[in-house]
Amino acid sequence: MSQTPADAPFLPLPIAVATVSDSRTVDNDTSGTYLREQLTAAGHRLADQAICRDDPYQLRALFSRWIADPEVQVVISTGGTGITGRDSTPEAIAPLFDKTIDGFGELFRQISFQEIGASTVQSRAVAGIANGTLIFCLPGSTGACRTAWEQILQPQLDSRTRPCNFAQLIARFSER
Question: MoaB/Mog domain spans which residues (predicted)?
């Protein structure tokens, strides 16, 4: 695999953010706000942002719209990844994946263990690729979003990260 030179330019990505919640609003959505602020501060473009009820069919409809939109290359969601009866994000979204990124959830839980201990086993954070679109489903807490963004997503969505990153590979996700 050829590597991009160390002085490669930053490639801004269009990213959509979904907050999965039955109770969050624009006024109290701290996790969605955090993700929006961080991705734009990093130089990416907010392609869209939505708050969606924790309902599998509404989630699939929203994500499917973004997956089909060539102007959205990354989707990051927050919420619905726990183990309560209403938490349905992994079940709703994973069937849309063409490929899963198992290492994302594994790494997220490993990093989270250092912060919250054994409580991390309650996280069902998942990631995958659907129609060439990267999808990351994070827990709903702002702390969990901070952990995922700072430790995994920010470096992996930066085309300058070495030795490799997701940003470099996006154009190749739809290869046949």
Answer: 16-160
Tokens 């300058």 identify what position?
160
| pLDDT > 90? residue 175 | no
Within 10 angstroms of residue 20's Cβ, the number of other Cβ atoms is 30
Q: What is the mean pLDDT of residues 8-19?
A: 94
pLDDT at 5: 54
Q: What token pair was written down for 137?
A: 């489903």
Q: Which domains does the chain have, with CATH numbers?
A: 14-171 (3.40.980.10)
User: 74-112 pLDDT, tens per residue?
Assistant: 999 999 999 998 999 999 999 999 999 999 999 999 999
Strand 126-130 and strand 133-138: the pairing is antiparallel
